Amino acid sequence: MPKPADCTTMAQIRAEIDRLDEDLVRLFAERAGYIDRAAEIKAEVDLPARINGRVEEVVQNVRRHAATHGLPPDLVEKLWRRLIDWSIAREESKLGPDSLRKS
Question: Model pTM?
Fold first, then answer.
């Protein structure tokens, strides 16, 4: 795996981006497996899909990681909020919508 500065052609750059994209998709699939398991556990203990405190904890974590790695925290937060919304929708597909659950 060459570092970006070691790449001398666009073909090398594209190959590395494609490799990273595959890795990212694999990691998102792994994350989805944990989301599915969370839905199972939440069903057992009657928790809603969306737990606002946890959402904000995740957002703060990724903002910190973004800053550590030289990425704009605001942009990463926007991406992650979309990912979180998708994850909650995935949980609700198994649990039923939070709006229909008992409080």
Answer: 0.86
